[in-house]
């Protein structure tokens, strides 16, 4: 090398060093310019700063990066997070191998260092970029050999990739700080789990605590707030090279960060107008926690009255008892005794969900949703499927093989999930769907009929007018009913008028609205006898001095006119001394009413739960009432021409006549099942908690045995004078049944018996308690039929030993005694529709 050339080279090197020292040194570390405690590096655009800091109240020193312009020090990265410096002797400088190292006075080895593999020494430099990334670059080639973005702490900054480099296996994830004062590696970590179909997972000490879920094209399934946003642009890459998620901010003035904090909460926030605004955070509610509800169930936080765990369609609780105690962790199993494998199975759709754990899912991006369905149907281990990517109406196939874990529903976000169900459940959902369709058809029909009627009425009116003019004012008899009530009142005061149109085939008397209005003094409050879930009951007095009780169904009782009339007709045919007698009905536009015989002594609950009236019914009377109710129920179940399930038997639905004979009332919810059908299923669970059998309350399955259950509860209430739903503070049991059961097993059942009942009847009473307990056994099959009950009441035979009754937790009751739950439920009703097999 000639000297001239060498001189030029040296000068240029000197120049570049000068430039480096005076112009660039603010954001760079070079071999001859280390960073000591107290020095601060600031990025070019002054966004980030690097230096030594002490977090919170700790006196220890760390090297970190924070926002330069945010007044309250907000650290985004820490170098020596697990080994702090105990004094201010730290120096960050290049070591002899071109790596950055943090050394302290008293230690021979570095506390922290970068571990880039660099072959040439002394030509590295480190630079703090405006993105908050500290990069180590080779000066001649500008190649980045190390960057702080590859070693995230608790913060993801824009352009920082989280996830897996599939070529090297290197993975980047966030880990929380230990505490506000200690940036050491905490127990929470957030990253993308590549097992099965990749998903975003937050772990605590290595086990999942929250799932952000799989990427669905626009966002992660478990972060509904992560919607398309003009400021924050999130992208996700899953190919053979990498599995990463990164985001960018389109407006450079906006500072945005994603932080996993010490409590294990992830939040995205932006710095605006001198404060951090939290965009979203998670986990937010208990339904977000991993497996809050066990396998094959979903978590629904939107109905505070109800247990938040619900079995997926076609599944039932693994342990009914735990489910009752509001412990959903045991999850659900496929309905026992049914097969969902090559036996007519299909899929039902659950909408607005967070997709279940995808670690057991596989994706095929080449399939359409229909191909996906067929593929899933073919393979019996396939439990659910959906589109892998929501964009453009759905791309690819994502299918689960095994238990569906950690599913929840959202009110207005989420994916659709198609769940494999057996043929029976499939039919139920298809019926429901059919019902909706037929309702639509019905609506169209009604409109056309209405138009026709209008036409007819006009013609009729014209005819009537013509008649009047022609033959004077002859009463228009029945062809067209006058509709104003003043006209009604001019008619002869016959209280009951048979319908004269033969097209209405009902043989139950029809009452004119005007008659009811007159009898009840226009439904005056003074005449109101009570209020039930399906309407109010009024006392009325007909012109012939006969007293009636009018049940006025509320407009939203959900019953259509035809359905209503059908039911009325059938009930009209029931005649039994222990059933309230129906006298007639009234339908007028929206109004639907049932007219019953009036019973002056009100209902049983007025007596048995009343402080003083209780004494009016002694043991003999009570036993008669129990037997009467049992006979009435037996008639409904067995002896009448139809098999009728009452579904809402309770003390307030047992009326007492003058002689205190019981009469079962309120068939508003009764269902007629086929002669030999003994079980049915409904998606609309109606009834009263405290009287509802477990299989009915939980699964909507009702049968004569659910009435037996209610009867058992009623029997125990009559004997004890206490409501099943009453609160037992001072005992381990949750309700009356549990309390009686506990005492009975200890042979102390007489302790809870109404003290007004004489000691001398102890044997009889104890026997009745045993019958009551037999009726409330958890499993429907264990419960006796009503005919057995009647027989047991009437004959002094040995009784079976009851099994444990179904316990219902205190929490199941709410302030409203009566509860109408829409199947399993509001969610199902709205969101579950079904897909035909094949
Ligand atoms: C500072 O002290 C802590 C505990 O007292 C120790 O673990 C750590 O190694 C010390 N740091 C240095 C650089 O010596
Ligand atoms: C470092 O060494 C000096 C003297 O060698 C001593 O005074 C000081 O306490 C030591 N610091 C630590 C943190 O050990
Ligand atoms: C640097 O260290 C990390 C662990 O701290 C390791 O995962 C990574 O592979 C190392 N890189 C190199 C180039 O040695
Ligand atoms: C690197 O630089 C240091 C000081 O600047 C010097 O002592 C050392 O000899 C250099 N090493 C090489 C390989 O040039
Ligand atoms: C969002 O990010 C992706 C990938 O980084 C990029 O291709 C795209 O142009 C960005 N979109 C906007 C609106 O900035
Ligand atoms: C963690 O973040 C959440 C949401 O931003 C916040 O409410 C909570 O106070 C934070 N916890 C700690 C310990 O900072
Ligand atoms: C149901 O419960 C049993 C016993 O507790 C348990 O072994 C089984 O794993 C549970 N099934 C599911 C699907 O969780
Ligand atoms: C069903 O799917 C599983 C998981 O993809 C696979 O292992 C199994 O071979 C499939 N069975 C059939 C019969 O295709």
Write a structural description.
With 838 residues, this protein is an alpha+beta fold. It folds into 5 domains: 16-151, Agglutinin, subunit A (Orthogonal Prism); 160-284, no CATH class; 287-421, no CATH class; 470-597, Phosphorylase Kinase, domain 1, CATH 3.30.200; 604-831, Orthogonal Bundle (Transferase(Phosphotransferase), domain 1). The strands form 13 sheets. Strands 25, 26, 29, 30, 31, 32, 33, 34 and 48 form a 9-stranded mixed beta sheet that branches. The longest helix has 49 residues, at 423-471. The site of one 2-acetamido-2-deoxy-beta-D-glucopyranose has 7 residues, from loops.
Q: Secondary structure elements and their pairing?
A:
Layout (H helix, E strand, L loop, with lengths): L2 H22 L3 E2 L5 E2 L3 E3 L5 E6 L8 E6 L7 E4 L12 E4 L5 E4 L8 E2 L10 E5 L5 E5 L5 E4 L7 E2 L5 E4 L4 E3 L1 E6 L2 E12 L5 E6 L2 E7 L18 E7 L3 E8 L5 E6 L5 E7 L2 E8 L14 E3 L9 E3 L3 E3 L2 H5 L7 E3 L11 E9 L6 E4 L4 H10 L3 E5 L10 E5 L5 E3 L5 E7 L1 H49 L13 H6 L22 H7 L8 E5 L2 E7 L5 E7 L7 H12 L9 E7 L2 E7 L6 H5 L10 H21 L3 E3 L8 E3 L5 E3 L6 E3 L5 E3 L3 E4 L5 H6 L1 E3 H17 L15 H10 L16 H14 L10 H9 L23 E4 L4 H6 L1 E3 L3
Parallel strand pairs: 25-33
Antiparallel strand pairs: 1-10, 2-7, 3-4, 4-5, 5-6, 7-8, 8-9, 10-11, 11-12, 13-22, 14-15, 14-21, 16-17, 17-18, 18-19, 20-21, 22-23, 23-24, 25-26, 27-28, 29-33, 29-34, 29-48, 30-32, 31-32, 31-34, 35-36, 36-37, 37-39, 38-39, 40-43, 41-42, 44-46, 45-47
The structure holds 2-acetamido-2-deoxy-beta-D-glucopyranose (NAG) (8 copies).
